[in-house]
Structures are given as C-alpha cells and as structure tokens.
Amino acid sequence: MLADSPQDAVRKARQQYGPRAVIQEVRQHAAQGLARIWRKPQLELVIQVPSQDNPPPVDRTPGDHQEETAPPFFKVYQQELQKTVEPEDPPVPAPRTRGQAGGQGQWRVEPILKSMGLSDYWISEMLERLALRFQGGMPDYVRDELAFCRSLVMELLPSPTEDPRTGERPLVFLGPAGCGKTTVLCKWMAHLVFQRNLTPSVWRLDGIQPNTTEMLDVYAEMLQASISRFPEDRQGDLAASPLFIDLPGIATHFSDQCLALEPQLESLPACDRYLVLNACYATSNLNEQIRAFERFKLKGIVLTHIDEQPHWGNLMNVLLGTNCPVVLLSGGQKIPGTFELFRSSSVISSVFPSNLDT
Description:
It is a single chain. The chain contains twelve helices and eleven strands. It is of the alpha/beta class. It has three domains: 2-48, no CATH class; 108-159, no CATH class; 164-342, 3-Layer(aba) Sandwich (Rossmann fold), CATH 3.40.50. An eight-stranded mixed sheet has the order 6-5-7-4-8-9-10-11, with helices on both faces. It has a three-stranded antiparallel sheet with strand order 1-3-2. Strand 9, helix 11 and strand 10 (326-331) form a beta-alpha-beta unit. The longest helix has 15 residues, at 142-156. The chain is globular, with a radius of gyration of 25 Å.
C-alpha cells in the first residue's frame, strides 16, 4: 500500500483492512523516471491483517498487570504443588536428605539449570533457597524443585510497571557503536506516529565522534518529524512534541570517551536515559558495558537483535545481575517491526521447561 503521509497511511489501512490492521514495515517509495524531480516520495507500507483465530499482540496499558504481577515465589510454589494428585492414604515416606537424591549429592534440578545456561553463581543462589524451603528433605518430584526455581526467578526479574513509550520526557539513547541505537529510535518514533498520532522532533548531535548516521534523516522525513543537527530552544509548539536525542556510540574501553559524554549529557534538557545493548554479545561484554554506563543514571535497558539470540539462559545471567531494569525488546531492521514491552513471564517461559511433570 502507498500513502502520502503517516496520517494518510493509518487512515487507508483502517479503511481498507479494518481496525485490526497492523503496520509491520514502512519504507520510502520514490517516483519513477523524471517524475521524481517534482513528485514527493510516498510511503510504502507492509500491512498485516491477523485472522480471528490469531489476534495481534496488544500492548497493555500501564495499569494492566494481570499477567505480570508475580506473586511471591512461595505462593507460586504452593500453587504448583497443589496440582499434584495424591493417592488416598499415601504411605508416609522416610525423610530424605540432599545427599540421598538417587545416590547423587545434588538437587535433581541442578543439571536442568546448568543446561539452561545459568551461571554457577545464580544456580548456587537458587539451590540455597531450595535448601531453606525443603529443610525436611527433598520433594518427591523434580517438578516441585523446578517450579520453585521458576517462581523465584519471576520475583527477581520483574516486568516494567509502566510502558516507557507513554512517557512525556525527552529521550536520549546511550550505548556502544553498532548496538542498534538509531534503529531503536526510529522504531520508537514510528510507534508514536502510528499508535499515538504524535509528531516527534529529533536532535542528531555529535559527540567525541561525529554522528554520521543518515538512516535517521531518511525515517524522520518519512514520518514527518523535524530533525536538527544542533540543540534548539524548546519553546511553544516545539516543547509539546516528543523529543529524541541521538548521540554517537562510544567505546567503553576508552575512558576519555566516557568522561566526555558526562558533561554533554548534563548540558541537555532533563531527559530519560536508556542504554541500548545488543543481546547477541557475550555475557562478559554486556556486563562490562552495563558497568561503564550505569554511572549516567539510566532509566532502563533496551535489548536489540533479540531475533538472533536463542540462548536466553545466558542472557538471564545479565538480567539478574543488574539493578537497571530491562524495559523494551527490539528485533530486526524493519521499522516498526518487533518492538515490544519486556515481559518477564515470556522470557522465563522460553528458558524453563514448559512441562513440569517430570
């Protein structure tokens, strides 16, 4: 489908395909031949129309916590334990200790946790909690151990209490070069245009390195967002529009680049700072980048390239080891493409076995 503007795109999509239509991708479509001299480029849209049996994912409002409000892990464990059907008048088993688990001196869930990719530190933490919970001996079923560990991770890895895309403050994205900051900015900008009917403005600023990205200019023009190479005085109508600030990435192993970034951030208007990280990087690299950027009072972390990261267990070590919450997940280069709120239940379901009847 072709449209002349973002507003025209939304109108045409809803008129032709109904309110269930979802804009999956937007790109520029130039006129052919000599017509490109006087004819303005149009927007080419990729529309998805979900079937009734396969509804599209819905972004919940900040007040909707039915799925994400995780009860304490002891309560979750008890709920899982109550699902076990006990025979009438079961024989009373003799107490078993940890060393009596099938002739092995370990919890039966320990090799399962290792196979998920969890580090020795977090496995040790979970086993210590298991020992406190089952002081009278190991449970009869490994599923009870696994359910306890799963509910414990749910408590340690909460979901965001609100969608950051509904905020009103200016946004600045930090991170190393090549992590996907500009792509995240364009996805966020497309979300505001198509979902909230807002027209953002962008500052593409230089840092210790020049900001040479041209992709941002292309998408800003497509989405009719104003873009400036220098900070502007935000007065009147400009102050009412959402502001995105794009800075070049820095190399965390060069301390002078981190030192130069700090005064530049202080010179900007009060804004929310988000760290953008490539989820495919090694755990050691991600931990190093988080330590380097946490001094800048981060509001949250945005993970990119999630479509290329199948080992969520390794990534879980990073998520559990930081006080900065993960708020958004981004995948692919398509705009808007995959750009969703972080849900701890979804991540944990992809790590822990779905079948607890073992």
